[in-house]
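User: I'll paste a sequence; please echo it back and then give the predicted structure.

Assistant: Echoing your sequence first, then the prediction.
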Amino acid sequence: MKKLITTIFCAVLTAGLFAAEPPSKDQVREQAYKEIKNASADLESTMTAFVNGLSKAVAPNAVQHNVWADAYIGKLFPALPPHLGGGVSVMTSTMKVDGLDQFIDDADMGTMGDMFKKMGFPLPSATGNVRVGGLFAPFDIGVSFMKYKNDDLFSTGMAFDYMTVGIDLRYAIMEQTLTRPDISVGFGWTKVHGNLSKGFSLNDGSGAKLSGLVATGFDTNVFCFSGQISKSLLGNVLTPYAGTRLAFQKGTYGWNTNLKGEYKESGVTADIDYNSKYNKNVKFGQKPVFQLYGGLGFRGLIFDTNLGVSFDFVSKSFGSNFSFRLVL
């Protein structure tokens, strides 16, 4: 009997010792990787939805960067005075991102949030631009540019870097007379590049601590074909205009994370790096833009303003633009 009791005691004690054995460093590291991957899953899903929405919104915004009410501004030479002008334009287009609905709800935006979910987030931008009339032939050329960098956007801790440069040419197939309007056709190219990044830390309650950098970025080329009609009234003071645009882009949108994590289990701690990324390549012909646009221009003695709106039938996004320029 004593021998049996001793055997059972030894077996129980041995089992208890094995059960109490702490996990190895490799086991904790493997578990840490799983926990940190799970902790970042919702973040990655939200970022993917955001960049997919961005890939539909950048091109409709870019084609509004240098809108003039006059379908054709006239020649630089021979003309008296020569026809040219330059100033600033601000524009916005809406970005629909279904994956961010939960973010809007969590932010408690009220009526504004409901409007964002229905119509999309506004995507604002601004450019400096110049337009110069052609030499001898009835055409004009426009150039636009913007470079913006902010390491603490709206005091959120987000770093934002955004750049656009574009050029377009319009050819007048009909020039305005007392009874006829200006009608032009055009082609333009815009390069758009930007990135948004923010550092963060996360403790999801599972024992995984996560910190690092999250960034989204895009680099795309937008090619636009357009047609526009305008008619100056009241001695060229008011100019209503309307037109259509067909645009395509070719570029890359994506996000990446550079994270460091810590996980502790049974007194054993593992530190790991967790990096992930997502790239979406938009090929020429994908995600086209088909816009109708229109608005009203107002001409002063040496300045010109115009206010316009647009709607893209492909992305179902609205846009608007306002410009102020000095002109001859």
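Confidence is low (pLDDT under 50) at residues 1-20. The chain has four helices and eleven strands.
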